[in-house]
## 1
Amino acid sequence: MIVRYLLIISLCFYHCAEAQKHISQIPDSLRNKDFDYLFDRIVDDSITSSQRSVYMLSFLIKAKTEENWEELSSAYKNYVHHAPDRFKLIYADSMVMAAKKTNDNKVIGAAYLSKGIAYYGKKRLKEAMDIYLIADHYIEKTNDKYLIYKTKYHIGQIKYYLGFYQEAIIIFKDCITYFKRSDVRAYLNSLHSLGVCYNMIGNHGLCSEVNETGIAKGIQTGIRKMEPYFIHSEGVNQIMIHNYEIGIRKIQSSLPRIRQNKDFANETVGYFYIGKAYWELDKKENALAYFKKVDKCYIERDYMRPDIREAYEFLISYYKEKNMVRTQLYYVERLLEVDKKLHRTYAYLQGKIRKEYDTKELVEEQKNLQSSLDLRKYNDQIGLSIISVMFLVIVYGILKYFKNKKEARKKYEELLKKIEETDKAKADKVDEPEFSMSKDAEISVLRSLQKFESSKKFLESDLTLTKLAVYFNTNTRYLSQIIARHRNKKFNDYINSLKIENIAKRIRKEKNLQNYTHDALADEAGFSSTRRFVKAFVADTGITPKYFIEELKKEDFSG
C-alpha cells in the first residue's frame, strides 16, 4: 500500500513536471478547447496512440490548471482506460482521490466504480467486489439511474463468477430492460452476460436465442464490438450440447478479435472449450495443446475459473495413460494449487462443480506418485513409519474429539439459548445512564446504538470507534464508556460479537448457509479474513462454526 501511494505521488509530480515541460509542445489549436472536445478526441478509435496521448495530456493539464476536481478525476479515468496495464491501478487511485475532493456522491461513486472495473479487468474479483460495494454506497444516494444500473451490472458479473447464476440472471434481466432504451453497448453487454448464465445452468436453447438477438442487434445498430463475444458464447454453448465441430469453428473464428481486445480471460476460456471438444472427438493430441495454453495463462496471468480447471484433470488423465509419472505429478500439484486459489475466490461455486479429482483424492494421488518416484531412495520401512504416524495422529484426534464433545455440546446449547433470548428482547429498551454524561445525551447515544444494532450497520467495512462516534454525534471517550458499561465489551469485541450473533442466527434460519465454507461465511459475516472470523466465533460462543453447523444439521435430520 505504501509503495502504491509513493507511485501515485511520483506520477502526480511527473505529470506536473511534464505539464510544465511540454506545455509549449501542445498544439495552439488545443489550448482553448473545452473538455468535451478533448474527450471526444480521446475516445475516437480512428486516431493513433501518440495523438491520443496529446489529447489526454491536454485534458489533464487543463483540469489541474483550473483545479476542476471532477474533470481531473475524468482525466485520470482516461489514463485508467488507455495507460499500460502496470499503471492502471495507480491511476485509478489518483482518480478516486480527485473525485473525493468534489464531495459529490455521483462523481465519487463513478470513480470507485471505474476503479472496481480496473480490478475486475485483472480478474482480481475480491478487490473488485469490495470496491463495487463502496461505489454502490455513494451511487445509491444519487438519482442517476445509469450509474445505478451500471453498478448492478458489474455486481451481477461478480455473482456470475461466484456461481450465483440465478441471482445474476435476475440482475442482467433488469439491466437489459433499462439499457435497451438508454445505452446500446451496455444493453449488448448485459445480453451477453445473460446468455452465458443460461449456458451455465443448462438452458442452452435460451442461450442460443440470446446470442442470435445480440448479433442481430449489433448489425442493426452498427455497434458490432460485442459480436465476437456472442459467437464465442455460442461456440461454448454448442460444445456443451455435443456439437463439437460447430463449437470449435465458432470459438476459433471469435478468438482473433478477442485477442485484439487483450481479453485474456475469454481467450483462455475459448482454449479450454476447444480442447474439451477435441478430447471428446478423441483427438487428444490436439486437445493437449489447448489445455497447455490454459495452464500457460494461469502461470502468466494467475487466471483460473472453476469450469476450466477441468483442463488439469484431462492433462493428468492423459499422462497417467502414457505412464509419464513425473509429468502426471507436475499437473497434480498444479491442480492442487489451482484448487486452493479457487477455494478462496469461488467458495460457493467450488462445491457445485463435479470434480473427477477432489482435494483429498489429489493429495492421496500426489503422495502415491511421489512415493513411486522416490522408490529407489526409500525402503518400505519408511512408508510403514509414515502410516504409523498418521494412524497415531488420527487416534489422538479421535480421543481429543470425544473428550471435548460434551463441553462443545454445552456451548452449542448456550448459543441457541442466546439467539432465542436476543430475538425476544425488546428493541426499544434503553438502559438508565450510569456516569457523568448528561442523561439526555446518554439516552440519545444509547438509542443511536440500538438503531445501529437493529439496522445491522455493524456489517459495514472499515468501521472504527471514531467513525461511529461521528455517526452518533458524540466523542470516542463517551461512546467507548457507554459500550463498556451497557454492553460489557470493548469496541472491537462489541462489533465482533454483533457480527457473530448475526451470522449465527442466519446460519440457523438460512439452510443454504450451512453448506458454505468458512471463507464464504467470513465474507457473509463481514470479517476481513477467515482466521479472524473463526477466532471471533470461538471467542464469542466457545465452539467453532463447523461444530455449530454440524449440530444444527443433526437436529434438522433427527427432527
## 2
Amino acid sequence: MDGGDGEDPVVQEIDVYLAKSLADKLYLFQYPVRPACMTYDDVPHLSAKIKPKQQKVELEVAIDAMSPNYCRSKGEQIALNVDGTTSEDSNTYSTKMMDKQTFSSIQATTNTSRYAAGVFRKGELHLTPLHGILQLRPSFSYLDKADTKHREREAANEAGDSSQDEAEDDIKQITVRFSRPESEQARQRRIQSYEFLQKKQAEEPWVHLHYNGVKDSRSEHERQYLFCQSMEVTENTELVKTRSEYLSMLMPPVTEEKVVKPVGPSNVLSMAQLRTLPLGDQVKTLMKNVKVMPFANLMGLLSSGTDSTAVLRCIQQVAMLVQGNWVVKSDVLYPKNSCSPHSGVPADVLCRGRDYVMWRFTQERSVLRKEVAAIVKLPPEDVKDFLEQMSVPRLNRGWEFLLPTDTEFVRKHPDVAQRQHMLWLGIQSKYELEKVYSLSKEDMVAKKADSQPVQVSGEQRLQAARQRAKENQASLQKDFERRRQTGAESAGVRVKEEPLSDTEEPMDTSLPNGLLNGYPDGMSSTDSFNGHGAHAPSKELQDFVEATFRKHYVLTLSEVKRLFNLHLASLPPGHSLFGGISDRLLQDTILLSNCRQIAVPFPSQSSAAMDEQKVFALWHTGETFDKHRHILFDIYMKHYRVRRNVIQTRLTQELGEEVTKADIDRLLKECCISYGGMWYLKGTVRS
C-alpha cells in the first residue's frame, strides 16, 4: 500500500480504443439451451437469414444422422409427418429423414448501449459497441407443418367419399356492421395489440445471408474490423473528470421509469372511482352498465348512509319502473345523434322500439321475439339487443323478464309507482304507439300493478298469432282481388283468377314497413299493377336489385331481403324507398332485372327455409361469358352439388373447345361456393 489513504496502487495503464467499423452490424449470439462446452462452430450451417429492423435471425444447421445417438426411426417418422409420401422440391426434408433443425432468435435486451465486445492485443483494449444481443433457441415450426398436412389429408378423405349424402349443418349468418370512426384510444390499443405486431413483423422481408465458419479466411478478415482502424491521436483525450464523475459516466444512476397505466375500456370504472362522482352520476353510471336492477341492490352499491329519497329522485331521471324494477331509459343508452352499432339505425328509432319492448314487459312476463320484430320492424340484431338487456330466453315461453316482480318496492313507494304509471301513459301518447305499431285500444290498456300475470306458453301464443294471420290473410285476399279486378277492368285487361297458395303469404313481415293493404302509400290499384298482374317496381328498387346481382350473380331470396334491409338502414328517414315492399314485388323486380329463378333440386331431407330454396341468378349481362353461366345454371337445375371436373367437362362439351383454368376459376368464384370437396350455388349449402 502506498500512503495511508487506503487507495490501490496503479499496476498498469492500458490504452482503450473505440472501434466503429462494425458498430451497426455486430451481434452477440447466445444459446441458452446448449452448454458452453458444446458449441456449434464445427456443425455445418446450411442457411442463415435476418430481418434487420426486428433484429430477428434464423439459422438452419445440419443434424448428424450417422451419430450413434441419433434415432433413425424417429427421424424418418417426423419427415413422413411433415412432407408426406410425395417427393417435391418444396419438401422440408429432402432425404426423407429429419437431418436439420432451425434456430430462431429473440432479443435478450432492447437496450444495448452499455454492452460492447472487447479485444485485447499488445497492451491495447479495442471496444466495439454491440448492435444487438440475441438468444437462439430451436424452432419447432415443422410440427405446425405436420399438423397442417394431417388436416389436409383428413379433409381430402372426407371429400373423397362422395357416394354418401351428408347432412349439412346450418350456414352461419354473417352480420354486417357499420364501423365508427376510430378514436385515438382505440388506435393506440390496436397498434399495441399482438395481432397488429405480428402483422407488422410479417411484412418485413427476410434478408438471406452467407455463413462463414470460424476458421474461414473471410471470418478472419472481418475480425480485423474489431480493432480500431485509426490509431493516430487527433485530439486531446486526457481524462479531466474527477473519480466520482468518471464512475457516474461508467455506471449512471438508475432512473425510475415512469409507469404508464394501461388504457382500459371507457365503460370500466372501479367502485373507488365511482364514489368520487356526484350521486346523480353514480346512479346513471350504474344503471347504464347494469341495465336492470332492483332498488335494494342499487342502494347496496352506493355508499352506506346515502339518503334513499335522494336516490329515488336520481333514479327516476335515468330509469323507468318495470315490474317494480328499474330499467335504464332508452335515451341514456342511445343519445341523440347516435346510431345502432349493429345496423346504423338512428337513435330516435331505436328508442321508440326499445320503449315498446319495455312497455310490453310492463304488461306481461314474457314476449315472443318474432312478434316484437314484426311490430317494431327493426333489424334482428337490434331487437335481440333490446331483449338481452332486460330478459332471458325460456323454452316454449319466449323471452322472460330478467328479474321477478318487486312487489315490496311498489308497496313501500306507491307514489313512485303511480308516477311511473303516468309516465308510461305519456310515452304511449308521445310515440302514438296505437298508430305507429297498429295496436288496438284493448292492447294499450295497462294491467293493475297488483294483478298476477297470466302465464301463457310460447306455443299457445304462436298458434294464436297464426290464427290472426290467417284471418287477416283472408281479408287482405278479398280486398286484393277486388282492387285487382277494378284496376284491370279500368285498363281493359282480363285478369285470370289465381288465388294464393296456403304456403304463400301476400306480405312478408320481415321486410320493414310492409304493406298492410297491399299497396304502397299514395299508389292506387290501377298504377300499382302492370299489364301482367304484377306489382310495378319503382326505378330505385330496380336499380338496387340490378346493382346487387351485378355484384353477387347468385342470391337466395332471403339473402336479397337481408341486403335490402341493410340498404334501407343506410337511407335517411322518410326516404321514398321506405314504402311497403312485399315478397311478390321483390321477386317480380328480380325477374324484371335480367335474372331467372334456378330450380335447384334440393334433397328431400333438406331443412332449408322456403326463402333459402328460392335461388335467383343473373342471366343476362351482355358479356360473352353469359353462355358459361347458362351452362352452369343448367347443371344446377339437375344436381344441387357437383364436382369441379363435372363442370369443366360439361363446359367443354357444350362450347366445343377446351375451357381455360382462368375461366373455370372465374365462373366458380362468381356463382359457387366449395364445401367438403363439392361445389354448390351460393346460398344453397349449410356449412
## 3
Amino acid sequence: MKSMLPLLFLLFTGLTFAQNSTKRTLKPSDIYRLQNLSDPHISPDGNWVAYTLSTVDSIKNKRNSDIWMVSWDGKESIQLTNSPESESQPNWSPDGKYVSFVSSRNGLKGSQIWIMDRRGGEAKQLTDLKKGDLNDYEWSPDGTKMALVIKTQPDTAKVKVPKPIVIDRYHFKQDIEGYLTRKPSHLYLYDVATKKMDTLTKGSYDETDPKWSPDGSQIAFLSNRTTDPDRNENSDIWVIDAKAKASMKQITTWTGSDTAQQWSPDGKQIAYLRSTASDNYIMYDQSVLCVVSKEGGEPKLLSKSLDRPVSNPRWTKNGTSLMALVTDDRTRYVAEFAVSDGKTTKITSGNRSFTALERHPSGSFLTAMSEPQMPTEIYALEGGITRRLTKHQDSFLEKITLATVEGFTSKSKDGMLVSSLLYRPANAPVGKKLPTIFFIHGGPVSQDEFSFDLTRQMFAAAGYAVVAVNYRGSNGRGLAYCKVISGDWGNKEVLDILGAADYVIQKGIANPDKLGIGGWSYGGILTDYTIASDTRFKAASSGAGVALVSSMYGVDQYILQYDNEIGQPWKNFDKYVALSYPFLKAYKIKTPTQFMVGESDYNVPAVGSEQMYQAFKSLGIPTELIIYPGQFHGITNPSFQKDRLERYLVWFNTYLMKK
C-alpha cells in the first residue's frame, strides 16, 4: 500500500493543476456575467425569501431584474418572473399567498403594482394609476390595504409641444431627475379588494417611506415641513391614522435628519436613525440609532458613544433590543443594541461587509454579505453564524482567478494613520515590484471595504497591484476623521494618498516608476488634486470630476454644500480660487490623464471634465475625453460599463506597462 502513495500524490497534484489551469483572469466582458442580488424579504411563515436578481443581456445591451425566491433551508431556488421588462420591490402579502412587485411590463408608460401566486402562474396587474409616478408601497398588516407613495406628475398625454420648464426653486437641479419643479410626493391608501384609493396627505411637501404600525391603525412616514425644504436637509418622522382626512402628528423634532423608522413589535416605540449634525447641510456625518415613544418626546440615543455610522435598524423578536449594521474601519458588521441602556454586542466579525438585515419569524435574521473574493449573496444569520442561501455567483467565480486583498496602515506626512486595502494579482511573482494603480473611492463620505470590487479586481487581473485608500473624509473611522476635510478639499486627502504611495514603495510592493491613479466622482476630483500636487504618477484617469470649483456654483446639484461649507462666491471668492488649484495650476501637471463623464450628469456635470481636458490639450499634456451619451453620474449602460473598463486598461497599459 505504501508503494501506491507517490502515484496517488502525482495523480492528485495533476488533477489540482488541471482544475487550476482551466481558470483565467478577469476581462472587461465579465461585467456581463456578474449578477446582482438585492432587496430580500422573508415570507410571513419564514419558509421563503423573495429577492431581485439583476442580469445583463449583452446582445440587447440591457440589464433586467427578475424576482426570485429561495427556501430558508437553501435547498430550493425558484425564478418567479421572466419578462422582458424589469420587476423590482418584491414583497409578501401578509397571508403569505402572494408576492407583489413593481413593474412597467406589457408596455405600460409607468410602474404599477403586480401580484402573483407564490406557487406559480401569471402575475396580475393590481393598480392602474393614471397620474403620477409610483415611488413606494407597503402592505397593511391585515393585507386588505396598501400605503402608496405617488409623485405628482403633470398630464402630458395630449401635449404635442413640450412647455417651457419654469423654475422657482433654490435647489433646482438633481442628477437623473433633471430640473426640479414643484411635484411633491404624497401618501395614498389603496384598498386591495375594491381598488379604491383615498388621499392621506396633500400640499406642497413630500412624504416618503410609509411604515405601518403592527396593529394597522397608523402609518409612520418621513417629511420635511420646514418653511423652505430646499434650504436644509431636515426630515422628521410623522404619524397619521390609516384613514382618509386624518390629521398627522410630528414625532421627532431634530433639525437634522431622522430616517429609517421601524415600529417596535408592541407598537409603543419607534426606532430610527438620526444625523449627528443639526445643521442645514449634512455631508460629513454618521447616523445614530435612536428610540422614541410613538407619542414623541425625548429620544434615547443608543449608539452615540460608538462613534460609527449605524444603518438598517431592525427590532429583535422580543422588542428588548435592536439589530443594526455598523460601518467600521474597512468592514460592516452586525451588532445588537440593548434598548434599556444602549449596550452594544458585536454579532459578526471578520473581513467582510454586510449590506441587508431583516428579522425571521423564528427570531433569527436574514442578511446579505460580500467578501473580497465573493460578490454579494443572501445568508441566514443564526446565533451569529452565517449560512449561505443563494448561490448565484458560483458560475461567475468558477471560471476566474481573483486577486488577494489585504489591509495595511500607512502614516501621512502630518502623522495621521490611514487604513487602506491592497489588491495583489493572482500568481504575482514573490518579491517583484509591480506597476500600481491607486483607485480612489468617491463620496467622500464612504469607505473601501473588504467586499467584492469588480473594477479593482479587473486592474489586478491585468497585472497591477491596486491600492484603495480610505483618506480623511471617509467614514468608518469616527466623526472627527470624517469632518476634518470640510471646506478644505484636496488637502489632507492628498496627503493620505501620497502617504499610502510612500508605504507601498518602501515595502517593495510598488514600482515607483510605474504608478497610476484614478477614480470616479470624488475619486475623480481627488485624482485631479493629486496629479496637481505630485508628479510621481505616470498615468491617471479622472472620472466625473471637477477642478475649477469657482465655476460650478449653480451648475451642479450641490448648492447647499457651497453655501453652507465654503460660502457664497461673492463673499468668499478667494476660497473658491484656492480650491480650484488643479485647473489654475494645470501648467504644473505632467501626468497623462484620461477624462470620462456621463453626458447627462447633473451631479458632477460634464463641464468639469471638459475644462480639464481643454487645459491639457492647450498645454500639450497627453489626454483624451470620453463622454458617454445619455448617461447620468453613474454609468448604467452595460456596453458603456464594459467600454470604460477597456479604456482604463488601454490607457494605463500605454504608460505603465512599458519595459
## 4
Amino acid sequence: MKIKDIVNRDIVNLTNCEQEPIHIPGSIQPHGFLLGLKPGSLAIDYCSANTAEYISMFHLQLLGNTFESIFGYKAKKLLEDYISNNLMLSSSLLKLTLAGVDFLCTVHNNGTTYILEAEPVSLDSKPLNEVYDQTSQFLAYMHDTHTLKELCQLVTKGTRDITGYDRVMVYRFDKDYNGEVFAESCREDLEPFLGLHYPHTDIPPQARELYMRNLLRLITDINYTPVPIYTLDDSEDKNLDLSLSVLRSTSPIHVQYLHNMGVGATLTISLIYKKRLWGLIACHHYSPKNLSPEVRLAAQLQGHFITSQIDLRQASEEYELARKTNLALESMNSYSLNRDADLQTLVDSSNILQLCNAAGVSITFNGRVYKNGLTPSDEEINQLGSWLSTYSGNSTFTTDKLIDFLPEAKEMCTNTSGIIYHSLDMDSNNCIIWYRPETQTEVKWAGDPTKAIIKDQKGLSPRNSFKLWKELLECISKPWLQPELNAASSYAYNLQRQINLLIISQEEERYRKLSELLRQTNSELENINWISTHDLQEPLRKIQLIASRILGKEEEMSSNVQDSIKRMNASANRMQTLLVDILKYTRLKHTDDSFDNVNLAKLLKEVELDMAEAIAEKNAEINIDELPDVFGIPFLLKQLFSNLIANSIKYVAPGKTPQIKITKEHSLVPFNADDNTLYQVIYVADNGIGFEQHFSQSIFNIFTRLHSSPEYKGSGVGLALCKKIMQNHNGHISASSELGSGTVMSLYFPVKN
C-alpha cells in the first residue's frame, strides 16, 4: 500500500495571498487528530500524522482499514447513528471512546468525505451547569439593552467570562470590509483597541468566504507545528477540503500577522447578517489557550444572539429616526402651494430640514432659487442643479462625498459635502436639494492602512506596526440614513405634485385671462366689423343713387364723363358686395343652433329655386344624383351650396354653358391617413376655367382671388366662408382642379355615431 501526504507546499506571500487556497492546507493544528472516512464503508481514506499521540496507533496502521476494524462495532454504530440523525446540527458533539481514550468529536461531510475530528475530553473543562448559567445570562442582555452597541458590549464581557480570553472584541465591517472595533472587553493592563479601524487587506476575500461557511475558527497556539495529513496514493491531485474543519491549519500569512500583533491564541466567531459577513467576535489571548468543545459552542451562541438582534436593534433605531422624520414630513405635506411666493415660506420652515436632518435646502423653480440654512450661493446652486439634472437624467441622486463625482466642487465641500437631489420636472432644472456640510472625522487606524504590506530583507510580509495612526477625513458628510432618504423622497414626490398643480393653475389663470382678452377683442372686432360694413353701405348707396341720377341726364354730359361715372358706379357695386360678404363671414362662428338630419336633395331644390334667375341667365345645367342625409345646420348648408353653385356659374369660360354635377362617394372614407374618423363625401364638380393645383389650399384664404379679370367679379370671401361652414360642422373641404378643365369641390361630413 502506497501513501502520500497532501500538504500544500506552494510558496505563499503577500503578492499571491488573495489566491492562497486556504481551504486545502493539507495539515491541521495538533490539539486533536483527523480521520477522513469514505461514505458507506467508512474506510479510513485520510489520516493526520499525530494519531499515535492520542490513540497509540500510527497513520500507517489506520489508512485503508475500516473504522469498525480499528475501533470496534460499538464506536462504528455510534458514528453511523450520529451521521444519520445529528450531522446537520452544528451544536451537537459526538462522544466516542477510541482505543480506550474518551474523545469529543465533530463530524461533517465535505461533499465527498466524512471528516471526523477528535479532541480528548479535558479534565479541567467547565461544569456544564456553569456554562449553561453563563449562557442563560445572554437572554437577559436582550431585555436589558436598547441599542445594538450596548448589546455588543455586554456580549464581549459575557464571552470573556465564559472563555477566559485576555481580549474579546466585536469587530464590524463597513461596505468595503474595512473593520472597526465596535465593542470590547479586555484585561485592565492591556491597551484598549475600541474604536480602532483595520484595513480590508487584513482579511482577504477568500478568508471572508470561509468565515461565511465556517462560523467558528480556533487557533490554540500561534507557534504550533502543522500536522500533515496522509492519504492512500490512489489518484492524482488527491486533496481534502477542510473549509468546515475545526482543526484546519492556518495560513502562514495570518500566523505571521498574529505574531506581529503579539497574540498567542485566538477564537473567531462569524456574525452573518442578510447573507453578508457583518462582523466577527474576535477573541485574543497573549499565550497559548485551548477551549473545550462545549465552551466553544457556548461562545458561538453569543454570535447567534448578536446576529438575531442586529435586525431588531437596527430596526428599532431606524424606527425612532423614521418616527421623527415622519412627523416633520407630515407637517410639510400639510402645507399647500398657491403661488410662487409660497416656496420661500415653505423652505423657511424648520420641518423641511428636519425631515432628513439636513443643514440646508434649496428649491429651484422657474429659474429662481429659494433656500434656507447652510447652502451654496445661488450661482453655485444653479450650476450644481444643471449638472445633477444631466448626471441623473432628471431623477434622483444621493451622496455623502460630492467631490468623488464632481472634483471641481472642492471649494463648495465645506457646506455641500453631502446632498440629496430630486428633480421636480423632467424637462427643466426645477429641483429640490438638501445639503449636509463637511464633517471632518478623525479615524484611528491600528497602523497606517497604506502600509498594510511591508518589504524587508525577507521580501513582502504583513505589517508589523499596529501603532495608532490617525487619518483626517475631509469633504465628507455624515452619511444619509435610509429613513432620511425615504422621507426626502416622499416629500420631493409630494412637492413635485404640488408644483405641477401650481403650474397647471398658473396656466389655467393665464389661459383664462387670454380667453377673456380674446373674447373682448373679438367682441370689439365684431362691433367694428358690423359698424364698418353697415355704416359704409349708406354712403355707397348715396354714391350709387347720385350716379344713377347723373346718368339719367346723359344728354348733358360728354361720353368721357359718362364712362367715368359708370366705372364709379361699378366700383361702388363691387364694394357693396364685398361689405356684404365680409359681414357674412365675420358673423359666421360656431353656432349653438341645433344640428339635425338634413335632406340634401330637398335643400338643393330650395337653392335652385332661390338662384333661378342666375341659373337661367347663364343657361346653367345642374345635375343632382341621389344624395344622403347629412347631420348639420340647414341654413348654413344652404349658404354653403349656394356659394359653390354661384362660383361654378361665375367662373366659366365665355360662350360656354355651365355644367354642374353634384354626387356622393358611395362608401365612407377617412379624410387622410392620420384621421380615424369616417366621412360621407359630397362632390360638386363643374366645367369652369379651373386653376393650377398648387393653389388648392390658398383659395380658401379670405380675400384670395386667382382671377383678376373684370369679367370674373368676386370679393375673395366665398370659399373662405365655405371652409368656415365645414369647420363648424367638424368637417373638411378640399379642391381638385386643372387649369381650363373645371374644378371638383369635395365636402367631408363626419358620420354621426
